[in-house]
User: Fold this.
Amino acid sequence: MRIGILSAGGDCPGINATIRGVGKTALTHFGMEVIGIKSGFSGLLKNDCIPLDYNALSGLLNLGGTILGTSREKPFKVPLGGENPKPQIIAENYRKLELDCLVCIGGNGTQKTAYKLSQLGMNIIGIPKTIDNDVWGTDISFGFYTAVDIATEAIDRLHSTASSHKRVMIIELMGHRTGWITLYAGMAGGADIILLPELGYDIKKVKQAILNRAEKGKPYSIVAVGEGLEIDSALIENKTGIETRKTILGYVQRGGSPSAFDRNLATRLGGHATELIVAQQFNRMVCVRDDKITSVSLAEVAGKTRLVTSDHDLIIQGQRMGISFGIN
Assistant:
């Protein structure tokens, strides 16, 4: 069999480990031929690809970024003119490359595009990739725990500054419109207030939580906030009378080498992708459910987002411990 691999959307720790997991399993165990598609779906439009042999797949396990490059090309987006030849060009190039299957590594947008490509008659396998952990259909996406580790370390470091200067320190964490990184890093880093896009917040309750801490002899607070929310440090300072500073952690959360957990997860997901190909179980996304590697139909995944809900056990436990989520 001859398979293609591409990575699309934002970069994420563990993409190279996934490419390695797919490629080495395909080459070594199943005797497949492996083609790397460069720059995401843009590479399929331009027929820009490279062979992935055993040497090309060596040294990838701990390497950040993606050796194939990536892009945010959305081939199904209809331009103002109304005509869009891109999907057909991709389908034609897929056939010209004589691919038996295309493996698409990416987040929500990539999986939606992958599903649409499958409707054009292409054999597709999706692999969920995002630090945001918001791909529907899987309990966990590779890259998430690496980002949580980085964000947790940043919160750890803010504690000493907040304590020394008796300040409120706000740290904005990535996650697009979801609060998975903020929840997990906020809890692991001992944040006093955790604000999630899915839940919103009441500024009065945030103010009261800060003042309650001050009354208990704790004149500083750490506020972890998801990037999908707006919170003004000047407003917090005016309402509480406590000096307030805001830090935006930004893109360092999704750069660099993947954690050991994410390396192993990427390897497991990549290996299962090749098993699905051999079994000709196409148009599915590999996923994790109850700590087991399995798969779900791309039709079920497309267009959905996995959100944090108020009944998550970390939120419930945090509330029991006196952590404010801006709603309590």
Summary: The chain has eleven helices and eleven strands. The radius of gyration is 22 Å.
